[in-house]
Target: Putative hexapeptide transferase family protein
Amino acid sequence: MGQGRVRLGYLLNRARNIRPGNLVEFARQTQKVSKAPLPVIIADMLWCSVKYDMGFRDYAVWDIRLLNAKERGTWMTHPKSFRVTRMYNTPEGRAKLEDKRRFAREYADLLGRESIDLRDVDDTELAAFLARHPKVLAKPNDGHGGGGIELHETGPDTDAAAFRAEVTGKGQTMIDEFIVQHPDMSALYPDSVNTVRLITFLDKAGVVHLLAAVLRIGNGAVIDNFASGGMFTMLDEHGVALYPGVDKNSNVYPAHPVTKTPIVGFPVPLYDQVVELAFALARRTPEAPYVGWDLAITPSGPVVIEGNHNSSVFQPKPSASGVRTGLLAVYRAAIGF
Model:
């Protein structure tokens, strides 16, 4: 499918589904960094959505209102990312990553954690799993964005049959051991597993390109993703946080609001191993060369959370970082679109 056709289809779909409430919401968010009147911001947002292939949230989170035309043209956007996903990630590759049951089977030697599907075990096997793990996460097999995930405290006395009935009644069939994170990661925020997302592209020569390295930090929820109130910052080549954390509402955090741990300069432990694991995962997935890998760090090394064939885009926020250019050049150099 050609780029032009994919883009046209995307734009038509957006036009059909545009919600005025979203425009106003993101325009008001933009007013945190701009004194421009709301109608001016909305008009500029609509112009950028066509001119730069840019989502409304992209415009708000990356302070596009503050940038000149040349700077605006340097940003990788979610519509562009969608187009790359559709052009390079095959249906087989997307299925391989989306189906948590299949993912756990095909990447079992790389996961670094124990995961079971209730459809594959009887109550005796389930009871043994629950006895081994004092905490587990119950997930829907095809969930997205952290939706439908619940934490359960378990142990040798947990009634396996009752547990099965409870979670399957909520559509949850995947059960993962709860990850005990590295103490350095816990110091950032102990109430969620804080993760690293490495966005990679596997080219036709088998070379893995690292497009973006992101530290994701929880803030008030058991999961750390953006949609659930978490924040992110970008990492340098050594795994050190470059900028303050930013959440989906464009709030900026030089230090975590709960733990007061400084975010800028935070070094991700065992980062070389994190990158090595992500590259191994990428080489295992030629059917989906463009993936965002979510990895957690335990005291003994990194473990795999999931692979996202439709990864969000992460870039520095200008008002928080002082950086006024995006990562489009990095993506284009690796992918060639």
Summary: The chain has three domains: 3-87, 90-100+181-309, 114-177. The mean pLDDT is 91. The chain is about 40% helix and 20% strand.
